[in-house]
Amino acid sequence: MMKKRIAILGSTGSIGTQTVDILDSIDAQAVALTTNRNVKLIEEQARRLHPELVAACDEAAAKELRTALADTSIEVCAGMEGLTRAATLASANIVVTAVVGMVGLAPTLEAIAAGKDIALANKETLVCAGELVMRAARERGVKILPVDSEHSAIFQCAQACGGNPLAKIILTASGGPFFGKTRAELASVTREQALHHPNWSMGAKITIDSATMFNKGLELIEAMHLYGLPPEAIEIVVHRESIVHSLVEFEDGAQLAQLGLPDMRLPIQYALTYPARVPCKVPRLSLAEAGKLTFFAPDEEAFPALRIARKAAGERGNACAILNGANEAAVDLFLNGKLGFLEIPELVERALAEVPRCETLTFARVLEADAQARELVYSAR
Asked: How far apart are CA 268 and CA 89, in angstroms?
């Protein structure tokens, strides 16, 4: 297996730090690291891993980082230019896209154009511009290797298909911290309650998405692009134990699942070592200790995000970019105490109704739809 030389976009976030954690388990070298503004942690990572380049998207943080690493030969870059420089670094052969939000789209497209394989953890890239990204990857002959636990599970199960097409995908959802609550009960939930996920340790934005279940709606859109299935062939079930990470179904009705403890290091490592499997420091699953596995239909009355996302997925064009931009803005408002929990899906649905649509997608139109959706949401508060 070719030695992996990895650029980690977002190395100081949840996925990024776990990627750094498994580097000593595989034959890999980090050649580029990026952060938004966590200077202290990226300096520690840089001194430990000795990359060629580090970048901070925040200009003030980049200035501080240059001073902190002045005694090294590491190149320090700033802003979106720095993020793109890391994504296209000549020595890298795979890019882990672990930044959160729309900021990941442009460097991902640039990395694909530069011939880099993508270990994709930035779901917004496919949600907003899946058609563009997958076409670019096919044309350039690069791999899009999923890092999300659910899409990694589907990817692993699909390898057993023997050339047979997938008939259905079954995405499992933890149900977040509010499983079983009614819509009336959700009206008064707080930021702190929404950030308390029962199974996974994640960043704030994705944790709120899990609480609203928009995360699962975004993953439905991702799966549609990754595996070429229509939204109606993608089912969502709530699985509270987070042991079954997703399933696939074939034409004869047989279903295959991938199981494991809820630990992101395994799907991250598999994306980086594919097609090889090597020892991983993740704890092993014991079914006897797990005891039981439960499954439930999602409550789309209490959690309308699933219905809203499925509708956008079926419309194509710029609908999913509008959905994502509106959701990012609404989550930001909620995290800053300016929006109620139930207002998140309400504002996303309003954006989908009011932002102009287009059928033919281009990069410029994705950015335009994103900006218009955000402006609508922010102007509502």
From this structure: 21
Query: Cα separation of 232 and 220, whole Å?
Result: 10
What is the distance between the alpha carbons of residues 41 and 62, in angstroms, rounded to a whole number? 13
pLDDT tens per residue, range 207-241 = 999 999 999 999 999 999 999 999 999 999 999 99
In angstroms, the Cα distances linking 71 to 59, 61, 64 are: 20, 17, 13
Indicate whether 190 pLDDT > 90: yes
- 81 Cβ neighbours under 8 A, 6+ residues apart: none
> How many CB atoms lie under 10 A from the CB of residue 189?
17
Dist CA 94 CA 268 (whole Å):
12
Question: Over the stretch 74-113, which tens digit does the pLDDT of each residue have?
Answer: 999 999 999 999 999 999 999 999 998 889 999 999 999 9
Distance CA 269, CA 249 (A): 25
The Cα 218–Cα 52 span in angstroms is: 34
Number of residues that make up the chain: 381
Q: Kind and range of the H or E element at 321?
A: helix 319-335
Q: Please tell me the predicted confidence (pLDDT) of residue 200.
A: 65
Q: Are 318 and 361 in contact (CB under 8 A)?
A: yes
pLDDT of residue 1: 60
> Mean pLDDT, the chain, as a whole number?
95
- Distance between CA 272 and CA 288 in Å, rounded? 30
User: Tokens 């659910």 correspond to what residue?
Assistant: 150
| pLDDT in the model for residue 201 | 64
pTM of the model: 0.93
Q: Pairing between strand 244-250 and 255-259?
A: antiparallel
Instruction: Give the DSSP letter of residue 72.
Output: S
